[in-house]
């Protein structure tokens, strides 16, 4: 008689092993999460110590009075520091905050126009590495040196004054006139920060396929049409990056203005970063300085988001 149960008894026990239950899978996921956070721990600790804690302390100071010495002297005042910035008679809204935005926008306009022009010229020249190096030199020069050199160039009898006189124009006291001081510093800021913008735009131009230009040449398109219809649309991602970085650079400018004008004449070149320094280190009012920093943060966030929306909207329309 044949034993029909033999195959079942001969089957290996491992073949009848049950699949892992939901508890084992959950424990495995938890172990993976723990390992991932262990690898992220150094970076998270860095951000906590150098970003989150200072940001929280600055927020605390923005709603307090503190002279910058003993932590026990911090006195909560609510939103008084913020209301004081915009109170009647305060110079923070005008001219300081207005100067900050105008300075940043002027830096973007001058640097962007100059960088596009120079990058386009470099793209057509030989020895491009040499030209890129020359235009990048201001980026590796200290701001104090740049500010002092341009300060003496703007002085009466300086190089700029000599060029104006050679062209038959009257001398202009650029840094002493409230109407010309801010534009004069904007030019220096744009010149000093244009090196990185030129590198980015040159790389963007290199990424545009040459076949587009060859097709436009066969169609008889002029240089202006090619630049407007091909170069600018395809260069838009690089232009977006340059606009945002130059704008942020202009908003954070402090050392150059301090060296060239110290915020003068009057408050013609006073900006938010300089006002924060004055409030904290000159007047000992760290609460007002922190409140001004948060106001500047909101301005940076709003204008940057607007720039992103406008430029991306134009990109979609194109």
From TrEMBL:
Transmembrane segments: 34-61, 96-122, 134-154, 181-205, 238-260, 291-311
Membrane-protein topology: Multi-pass membrane protein
Gene Ontology biological-process entries: transmembrane transport
Main subcellular localisation: membrane
Entry's localization field: Cell membrane
Gene Ontology CC terms, in alphabetical order: plasma membrane
PROSITE patterns: ABC_TM1
Key words, A-Z: Cell membrane, Membrane, Transmembrane, Transmembrane helix, Transport
Segments of this protein annotated with the region Disordered: 1-24
InterPro entries, alphabetized: ABC_transporter_permease (IPR051393), MetI-like (IPR000515), MetI-like_sf (IPR035906)
Highest taxon of the lineage: Bacteria
ABC transmembrane type-1 domain span: 97-307
Entry's family note: Belongs to the binding-protein-dependent transport system permease family.
Protein name from the UniProt record: Sugar ABC transporter permease
Organism: Streptomyces malaysiense
């Amino acid at each position: 008689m044949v034993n029909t149960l033999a195959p079942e008894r001969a089957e290996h026990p491992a073949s009848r092993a049950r699949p892992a239950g939901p508890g084992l899978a959950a424990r495995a996921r938890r172990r993976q999460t723990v390992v991932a956070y262990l690898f992220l721990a150094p970076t998270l600790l860095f951000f906590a110590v150098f970003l989150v804690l200072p940001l929280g302390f600055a927020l605390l100071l923005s709603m307090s009075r503190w002279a910058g010495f003993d932590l026990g002297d911090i006195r909560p005042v609510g939103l008084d520091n913020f209301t004081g910035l915009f109170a009647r008679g305060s110079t923070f809204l005008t001219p300081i905050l207005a100067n900050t935005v105008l300075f940043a926008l002027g830096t973007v306009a001058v640097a962007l126009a100059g960088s596009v022009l120079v990058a386009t010229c470099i793209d057509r020249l030989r020895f491009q590495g040499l030209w890129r190096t020359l235009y990048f030199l201001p980026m590796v020069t200290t701001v104090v040196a740049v500010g002092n050199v341009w300060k003496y160039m703007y002085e009466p009898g300086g190089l700029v004054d000599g060029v104006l006189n050679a062209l038959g124009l009257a001398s202009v006291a650029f840094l002493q006139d409230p109407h010309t001081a801010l534009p004069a510093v904007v030019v220096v800021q744009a010149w000093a920060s244009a090196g990185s913008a030129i590198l980015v735009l040159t790389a963007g131009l290199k990424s545009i396929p040459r076949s587009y230009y060859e097709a436009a040449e066969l169609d008889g398109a002029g240089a202006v049409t090619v630049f407007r219809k091909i170069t600018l649309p395809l260069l838009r991602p690089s232009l977006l990056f340059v606009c945002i970085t130059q704008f942020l650079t202009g908003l954070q400018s402090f050392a150059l203005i301090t060296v060239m004008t110290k915020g003068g004449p009057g408050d013609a070149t006073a900006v938010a970063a300089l006002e924060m320094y004055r409030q904290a280190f000159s007047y000992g009012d760290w609460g007002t300085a922190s409140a001004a920093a948060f106001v500047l943060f909101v301005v940076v966030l709003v204008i940057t988001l607007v720039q992103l929306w406008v430029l991306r909207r134009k990109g979609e329309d194109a």
